[in-house]
Amino acid sequence: MIEVEGVDFYYGKSKALHNISLKIPAKQVTAFIGPSGCGKSTLLRCFNRMNDLIDGARIGAGELRIQGVNIYDPQVDVIALRRQVGMVFQKSNPFPKSIYQNVSYGLELQGIADKKRLDAAVEKSLRGAALWDEVKDRLHSSALGLSGGQQQRLCIARAIAVEPSVILMDEPCSALDPIATSKVEELIQELKKDYTIVIVTHSMQQAGRCSDLTAFFYIGKLIEVDATQKIFTQPANQQTEDYITGRFG
Amino acid sequence: MQHSIGSHPFTTPPIGAARTEKNAFQVFRIATYCILLAATLIFGIIFSKGAQTIFVREFPFVNVAFLTQSPETLHVFEHEGQPHELGDREFRAYMEKRGNPSVKEESYVYSAGGIFPCIVGTFFLVVGSMTIALVVGISAAVFLNEYSRGGPVVELLRLAILNLAGVPSIVFGLFGFGLFVLFAPVFAAAPEAGHVSLPLGFCYLNFTGWGVSLLSGWFTLAFMVLPVVITASEESLKAVPKGFRDGSLALGATQWEAIRTNVLPYALPGILTSSILGIARVAGETAPIMFTAAYVVRDRLPWQVDKAVDVLFQGVMALPYHIYVVSSKIPQNEYTERVQFGTAFVFLAVVLSIALSSVILRNRMRARYRW
């Protein structure tokens, strides 16, 4: 689904990613783990080109392909790319509109104005994010009135409303309590039936619980990538083992 | 172990620094009260003296004539033992009715009638210039805050905006005179001799200027208030959290869509607050409109024109300019004093009402776009 080949990434003059190569399979959950500043969020933001918004951020070498298409090709429309590759941010950022308007925002951007269609899409997305039962009676109340976990699930609903093929999640549970976290993790297991999910996480337990494939990054380099079971029980690399057992990071 | 309260370390009498602090607070307090005193004096004198002109004892308790008529000359005379003070029209009617007797009368310019054209003129000037200032100012703020990438050109832009804020208003008046009154482009069928003329195929663009007109006044006043609007708009845009923009962009919005739907609506209350300051300034400045838009007296109201487009190309009377004319261009006496204070009173009331409507609009927007 996503192929990274020999990618170097620079923020201005400093090199953030060194020669990253990995393949992310479709309809599975891939986790990026590693200590702070190792480049996992940088790589994640490359997939939907959110790094373009940062001055001086650029790819130095290599290719990034999603569904076979090099996404940094000048002919690629960034807007269309971002509709296919959705993102959920670390700090949930529901818009200060109603719950309904939050979820329908992405569709309204595409010009869809038919109320019936929007109603159906909103319900489908909220059900898909396991939030429908909790909010179906107050769709038109402000999204800011939801709890932290509900807000993050609303952001997930918002992301899946535009029907992407990939969902990128940048530490989605870091601001949530354990119960909300477990709800989101259950949701991720449901979502992977329909979407390819890439999740950046600081919690190794979360990576172990949620993901099928795990990639370990350290100071901008990809140290090891393998099936989750194997990485957590028999890591091939000493650094990986040190990180997983908590000797550093 | 009990200490007597007198010798306890927490109750030692104030020494040195503490006493200085007390004195400093007194100075601050007095300074603040002086400001309050000045404001009270200014508003108090204007309201009390102006009220003599504006309010009358009978119903409807307001001097409607003063607010709805044009300025006239006041004729003060004695006839048949009775002193009379009549405006132009009433004086003529009085004279005709009595077969034009010769009376010794003194006439005082602008001291009768009302100031309706001035109220209307100021209103038109404020609304037009604030619209231009807001449109241009918000666009500039969006460009500077959302699109520009820094660098020497943008720094020069910011410096220019800052400098614009320090230009004296009389200089703005001269600038407006030179650029808009004398040199602004006008569409015409044929080129004008002695002026720059651009052929456009189907017509000509003659740089003959707009003359003393609403358009010239609007642009001059708009440029004067632009730095305030740009600065306040930028601050309001910066206050909107970055997460709103990121969230919109991640859903496939273009940058302008993200700004239009998810940033600007939430920045508008702050922008409108700054416009209140701009309104007071625009309504009150005399120097910029002296050469560009204001007539001392004009017998037609802004909507009494032959062609609709003429509305833009006519000058108007304005409240601050009227105060200036009545106070310094004609001899002073008790009759002109009435007009002066009445005009000042009305002027304050007009600015207050425009500012109030801006506040109401801002509160409505705040309630609707709460974040």
Give an overview of the whole structure.
The complex is a heterodimer of chains A (249) and B (371). Helices cover 37% and strands 26% of the residues of chain A. Chain A has a six-stranded mixed beta sheet with strand order 6-7-8-3-9-10, with helices on both faces. The two termini of chain A are 30 Å apart. The model of chain A has no long low-confidence stretch (mean pLDDT 89). Chain A is α/β, with parallel strands linked by helices. Chain A has one domain: 3-Layer(aba) Sandwich (Rossmann fold), CATH 3.40.50.300. Chain B is mainly alpha-helical. Chain B folds into three domains: 50 residues; 42 residues, no CATH class; 253 residues, Orthogonal Bundle (MetI-like fold), CATH 1.10.3720. In chain B, 61% of the residues lie in helices and 9% in strands. In chain B, the strands form two sheets. Chain B has a three-stranded antiparallel beta sheet. In chain B, helix 5 packs across helix 7 and helix 7 runs antiparallel to helix 10. The longest helix of chain B has 38 residues. Chain B is flat, with a radius of gyration of 28 Å. The model of chain B has no long low-confidence stretch (mean pLDDT 85). Classes of the chains: A alpha/beta (249), B mainly alpha (371). The interface between A and B is medium-sized, with 25 and 21 residues.
